[in-house]
Amino acid sequence: MINKSFFWQALLNRLLVTLCLNFFIIVSAYADGNKTTLSISQPAKGINFFYLDGRDQEDLVQVAEKLYYGDDACKGTRAHVSKRFKNTLKSIKQAGFKWVRLLISKDFYHIYANRCGFNMEEVYPVLAEKHVNVLTNLIENIAQEGLKIEVVLSGTKWFAEPENDILFFESILLGIPSQHIDMVMLGGDVQPANAKYQADWLKKVLPHFLNHELIELGALNYLFDTVTYRNKEQATNYVAWVTQEFPTLEYLPVNLYNRSLPPGSVWQDYAKAINEYAEIYRKSNLPLWIDEYGFRLSNNSEEEKYTEADRVEYLKGFHHALFCNKQSPAAHFIWTAGNDRYKASPEKDYGRTPFGLFESYTDNMPVTGDAWRELSLFNTGSSYCERLNELD
Hints:
This protein is an alpha/beta fold. It has one domain (about 40-390): Glycosidases (TIM Barrel, Alpha-Beta Barrel), CATH 3.20.20.80. Helix content is about 45%, strand content about 15%. It has 14 helices and 10 strands. It has helices at about 5-30, 60-70, 80-95, 105-110, 115, 130-145, 160-175, 195-210, 215-220, 230-245, 265-280, 310-325, 370-380, 385-390, and strands spanning about 45-55, 100-105, 150-155, 180-185, 220-225, 250-255, 290-295, 330-340, 360, 365-370. An 8-stranded parallel sheet has the order 5-4-3-2-1-8-7-6. α7 links the parallel β3 and β4. The radius of gyration is 21 Å and the shape is globular.
């Protein structure tokens, strides 16, 4: 039996979004419709912001709630979240990063529905104003630090509801301060050349936003989020699909994680392995937008042990392959700032995947290691490639 209350609420949500769109179309007729211009010669140096100190209480959803409502939001038991947040942004800037990447997903709200008291009917398909206010506060705090922002918008699992995903994305973009948003990535882990249902989703959603009837939304920059492909054939097929289906895209979205080499491998080997894929992507004749890259340390369940030293070698190889040749530089966002381990229950990390670039926090300040120093050297130094080539 149909839930009449839910039906009428969904209908009302659609009506409200339509009214908002019509209103903003009228207002935007007088606005400047030019897109924000992104520099190809000075591409984005970015980092994913998804954790502060621990995944159990301080991932992005909970951090945003606590910044807005206070430390005890989402059953929080730790004080000074705002201090850790501010100090993290300052550390990001000091390390030479210019951009921050934020993930906004229906699934993340669902995961924390009980802990944070979310009513999913107020989340999807239209994000309620109170949730938009939380996101606005987060974005404005980041923008105040002089950082550019990319948002990744993800909807329903299995890409099953493109129309409702469009409503969800529009309700977010209409509510948050779009003047602070320099790139919007649509979808999460879209593999259009590997799965027809994902290709169908992308062909509905991406053109809707690239050609949006509302000037303010049409003026934003849009791409889509993809994955690190498992082999060169998949990567080649991906390039062929994108260039055929979306020949006017200004960038090629790319992921470039790489953990294919054994522990103890040197950066020259990582540079070679990464460059083999980078060359495939460059055949698109588009500048690359590397929306994710990074290196996972080993957890306790694994026999092979990848350490911080391995991560440093990966980073050197990544930098050399992408930036120390005569190729056009690429926008790039590393995963991830923060400590992504469990604080309260370390045993839960047994099979987890630690990517976090912070070891911990002391006095609300990030504790960083060799990989962070390597990133800072690359971001802030003018002779990084020269020094690296001297070692080659």
